[in-house]
Design goal:
mainly alpha; Glycosyltransferase; Farnesyl Diphosphate Synthase
Length: about 575
């Protein structure tokens, strides 16, 4: 059984604030309310971006150094793939982990596969690491991460005869951090993995209580709890990892080389993404995406951030990132039309027109809707044509169906909230998974990656569970964040509020705990889909993209008291995309 390598690329510098919620951030009860335009410039492209790109001359020395150091890392990996695991298995695990944590494993997929495959097939019951908490946990995580099924009982060696975890484990802080990382790759009904997660989390929090605030090791432990690797995009957390290694001291001779080449790789990736963002900004200007919709959000940086993060692993997927950004732009735009402009009668006409998908339907629409409708058809038809040119299959029927579903789900919400008719929690969540817009992104991603060909072993229906799961994570996390951080009264929809309405004795704290448990379970479903179902090598990019969309959710929906996005600001801080 195989799975994707989990990772990603690139960092930014920005100051993020947002005024509304959801992937297509919606607040349907604010009909006629003006959009908070004062924050929009923070999602627009820096005016200096063009000059930054034109003025950057990558020196020949940079490229020479980059290729030389990449060759050194590649050679080191090849050496480890041929070493005896009894003597060098631990070192091989550490090397692979370091490469993945700086988000560079996509350069060394074959070499990493050789090392981990050799360890998987030639070791017996993890004997070569002798029940060491750190190495057993790392081995477990890396193998599952690579797609090799390791039974959960591999971690039962840490239990005493009475069924409790051995007392000495509480003192091994490095081992506890790695044990907590391993627990993130659990599947449903793996009881021992749930126990491992609770045990490691509780004991790491006890360590935090003992540490002084100025203790640099406290930062390392806190980051381990807050940002487990499996649920984060490696490129956005690489700095924390490198700083953590420096706190403990660089003890491996290859660490300096790896960190140096990682910095050069970041620079190259940043320039690539800046250029793509510039193309998106020009596209926005050319099509007049917000024409006649002055209150709609024109936020190309936010739109591109989703697409960039989902396909951050593969620099060659330029076309896919740009075209995916265009689709995401229309999710936001249509949401604003439902949110800020349309009456129910207008929105019904708009939904009917989208489901017809005919240019003649423009005459049935109010004037302010016509440009957006024409641009939607132009853009999505154009994406379908590009897919057909590249892969000899035209996905327009599937793409049209997703836009019809999105508009219909948004219309359902509009009717609920404007009539003050309250859905059940289940009804709200099922509809909210569609209105989130995630299915739009993943269906377009599926075809842009060439997975819709007739002879392909994976078809679109095989991705339904994964798509639904990522959408559930976004919907629930948004509600979990907005209920607390946006101080909303629930009139625009909240799963937490609807649960409390249905169960009079359910407190907000209990409802939030229920949502947190649901989110944890949804991550287990994602793990199952990647490990057990979508395990064909040809869908590795799609799996990675889906995982990265789920990983982006906390960054996009963790608000502070000013409705800013502190986690996103923290992680995306190295490029000049933003002023």
């Amino acid at each position: 059984m195989r799975i994707c390598n989990f990772s990603s690329i690139s960092s930014y510098h920005c100051s993020f604030t947002t005024s509304r919620k959801r992937f297509a951030i919606t607040n349907p009860n604010r009909i006629g309310a003006s959009c908070t335009t004062t924050t929009h410039h923070k999602w627009n492209v820096s005016k200096d971006l063009t000059s930054n790109l034109e003025g950057h001359n990558s020196s020949e020395k940079l490229w020479v150094d980059y290729k030389e150091k990449m060759g050194e890392i590649k050679q080191l990996l090849l050496q480890h793939s041929n070493l005896d695991e009894e003597m060098n298995g631990k070192e091989s695990l550490i090397l692979v982990d370091a490469i993945q944590r700086v988000g560079m494993e996509h350069h060394f997929d074959e070499e990493i596969e050789m090392i981990l495959g050799r360890l998987y097939y030639s070791t017996n019951n993890f004997d070569f690491i002798h029940h060491d908490l750190y190495y057993v946990s790392l081995h477990f995580r890396l193998l599952r991460n690579q797609g090799y099924y390791v039974p959960p009982d591999a971690l039962s060696v840490f239990k005493a005869d009475d069924g409790k975890f051995k007392e000495k484990l509480r003192q091994d802080i490095g081992g506890l951090m790695e044990l907590h990382e391993a627990a993130q790759l659990g599947l449903r009904d793996e009881v021992i993995i749930d126990e491992v997660e609770e045990f490691s989390r509780l004991n790491l929090n006890k360590w935090l209580e003992k540490m002084n605030d100025d203790d640099l090791h406290k930062m390392v432990v806190k980051n381990s709890l807050r940002q487990p690797q499996h649920k984060n995009i490696a490129r956005l957390t690489a700095r924390n990892y490198i700083e953590g290694v420096c706190v403990k001291g660089c003890k491996k001779g290859w660490e300096k080389t790896l960190f140096e080449v990682a910095k050069m790789d970041f620079l190259i990736g940043d320039l690539l993404h800046q250029d793509e963002l510039l193309q998106i900004s020009k596209w926005c200007d050319n099509v007049g995406i917000c024409e006649k919709l002055e209150r709609a959000r024109r936020q190309p940086v936010k739109w591109y951030t989703w697409a960039m993060a989902s396909l951050i692993n593969n620099p060659s997927l330029r076309l896919q990132r740009i075209e995916l950004t265009k689709a995401i732009a229309f999710i936001y735009l249509i949401d604003d039309i439902f949110d800020l402009y349309g009456t129910i009668d207008d929105l019904t006409l708009y939904t009917q027109a989208i489901n017809r998908w005919e240019y003649d339907a423009i005459i049935t629409l109010p004037e302010y809707m016509r440009n957006s409708y024409k641009n939607l058809l132009d853009t999505i038809n154009g994406i379908a044509q590009k897919v057909e040119q590249k892969y000899a299959t035209n996905p327009i029927d599937s793409l049209k169906a997703t836009w019809g579903s999105l508009s219909q789900a948004m219309l359902v919400e509009a009717r609920w909230f404007r009539s003050r008719e309250l859905p059940t929690a289940k009804e709200y969540l099922e509809n909210g998974k569609v209105s989130s817009g995630i299915h739009i992104v993943m269906v377009h991603l599926f075809y842009l990656l060439g997975l819709g060909r007739k002879q392909h072993p994976i078809n679109l229906n095989d991705t339904c569970t994964l798509t639904s799961t990522v959408a559930t994570i976004l919907r629930l996390y948004d509600d979990l964040g907005s209920a607390k951080d946006e101080h909303q009264d629930g009139s625009d929809g909240s799963y937490i509020k609807y649960c409390m309405n249905e169960e009079a004795d359910l407190s907000e704290k209990e409802a939030r705990r229920r949502v947190e448990d649901m989110l944890s379970n949804q991550w287990k479903v994602i793990n199952e889909e990647c490990l057990l179902r979508l395990n064909h090598s040809s869908v590795s990019c799609f799996r990675r993209g889906s995982l990265n969309l789920a990983r982006m959710v906390p960054l996009m929906y963790t608000y502070d008291e000013n409705q800013g996005l502190p986690l996103l600001k923290e992680h995306i801080n190295n490029t000049k995309l933003f002023n």
